[in-house]
């Protein structure tokens, strides 16, 4: 049986989509086949998750943490990774992100690791346009057996950087969704009661509050939405450094009374926050000349699994998660008008919105399962 060492900076209890992706891949490996070597989340990351020690003990595999918030491929980390691989008899390595940790691939290969795979996400696709990062990505591609990609957008960006042989070895590996957790009836009614939402129409956005995610576009669109749907509520789920600016924008636009900020939400409570909504919207956008893009957006898939129609911004690979016009809509994220029009149409026709959400859930159950992702990883690891 292949025994895999996962080396990653992106792992719970630090929250985030990549963290959830890597963790789920680890949990879906055969028993006894995984060891995780990762960083330790800073204390500021621990608010809505268990402490690392309690989290690690609960996992069905060993978790070895370096006492640093970021693993970098320096001499000490390289030496420890090679030592863990030897002591744990790991014959394969999976890097949670290709850059920068994939720079350790050549040394691990010399120590006898048979198979090396590097995951990529949105940030690698952005970095592919930077000269220094391009060289590192090309080196990672040359020294690993497979570089994975999320969808057509990320593959196209990365394939231009890798040498032709590495580009031919690329394989798609995208996250799945647990449709038993994210589903209609997952506690939304109780949450609505707790938040005193009653039967009001709700648009939810689940994400960190940062400029790229587009919560400001939602707030700019909200006066037009309220003009047509006066009792609508915008539920912004998540914490982040942009919150004070978003709160100020809501006051400036005169909609503060209908915009609710939940702050950070525990992982176990996320399904209820989707289930409390009628529509999901995150008009994410690309920033910094394309360096900061949405790789895929697992929140769009979680929302679809919850039976919600989705409004997504046209950033990076986000359109891969939405079948435009069928399971949701893809909008220009820089303009509030397109977002407002789509939200008004969906909130104004609940039957059509529910049908669109139902098609989204069917698609996720068919195409975006963790069982499918686990099978693809099995094949990639050989």
TrEMBL record:
Residues covered by the Glycosyltransferase subfamily 4-like N-terminal domain: 15-181
Annotated ranges, domain Glycosyl transferase family: 193-363
Entry-linked InterPro entries: Glyco_trans_1, Glyco_trans_4-like_N, Glycosyltransferase_grp1
GO BP term (any one): carbohydrate derivative biosynthetic process
Molecular function in Gene Ontology: hexosyltransferase activity
Keywords for this protein: Glycosyltransferase, Transferase
Annotated protein name in UniProt: Phosphatidylinositol alpha-1,6-mannosyltransferase
The organism of origin for this protein: Murinocardiopsis flavida
């Amino acid at each position: 049986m292949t025994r895999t060492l996962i080396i990653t900076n992106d792992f719970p209890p630090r929250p985030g989509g990549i963290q959830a992706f890597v963790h789920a891949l680890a949990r879906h490996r055969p028993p006894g086949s995984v060891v995780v070597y990762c960083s330790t989340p800073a204390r500021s990351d621990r608010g809505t998750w268990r402490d690392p020690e309690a989290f690690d003990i609960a996992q069905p595999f060993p978790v070895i943490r370096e006492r640093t918030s970021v693993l970098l491929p320096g001499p000490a980390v390289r030496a420890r990774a090679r030592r863990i691989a030897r002591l744990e008899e790991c014959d394969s390595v999976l890097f949670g992100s290709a850059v920068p940790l994939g720079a350790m691939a050549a040394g691990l290969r010399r120590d006898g690791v048979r198979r090396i795979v590097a995951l990529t996400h949105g940030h690698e696709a952005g970095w592919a346009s930077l000269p220094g990062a391009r060289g590192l990505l090309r080196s990672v591609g040359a020294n690993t057996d497979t570089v994975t990609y999320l969808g057509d957008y990320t593959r196209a960006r990365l394939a231009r950087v890798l040498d032709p042989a590495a580009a031919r070895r690329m394989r798609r590996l995208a996250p799945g969704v647990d449709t038993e957790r994210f589903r209609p009836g997952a506690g939304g009614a109780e949450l609505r009661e707790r938040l005193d939402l009653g039967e009001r129409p709700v648009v939810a956005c689940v994400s960190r509050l940062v400029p790229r995610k587009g919560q400001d576009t939602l707030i700019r669109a909200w006066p037009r939405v309220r003009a047509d749907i006066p009792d609508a509520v915008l539920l912004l789920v998540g914490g982040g450094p942009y919150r004070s600016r978003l709160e100020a924008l809501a006051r400036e636009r005169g909609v503060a009374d209908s915009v609710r900020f939940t702050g950070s939400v525990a992982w176990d409570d996320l399904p209820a926050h989707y289930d409390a909504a009628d529509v999901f919207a995150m008009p994410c956008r690309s920033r910094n000349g394309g360096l900061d893009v949405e790789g895929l957006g697992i929140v769009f898939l979680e929302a679809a699994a919850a039976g919600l129609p989705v409004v997504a911004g046209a950033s990076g690979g986000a359109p891969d998660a939405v079948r435009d016009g069928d399971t949701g809509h893809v909008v220009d994220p820089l303009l509030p008008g397109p977002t407002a029009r789509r939200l008004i149409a969906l909130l104004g026709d609940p039957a059509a919105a529910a049908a669109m959400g139902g098609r989204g859930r069917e698609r996720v159950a068919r195409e975006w399962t963790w069982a499918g992702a686990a099978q693809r990883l099995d094949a990639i690891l050989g």
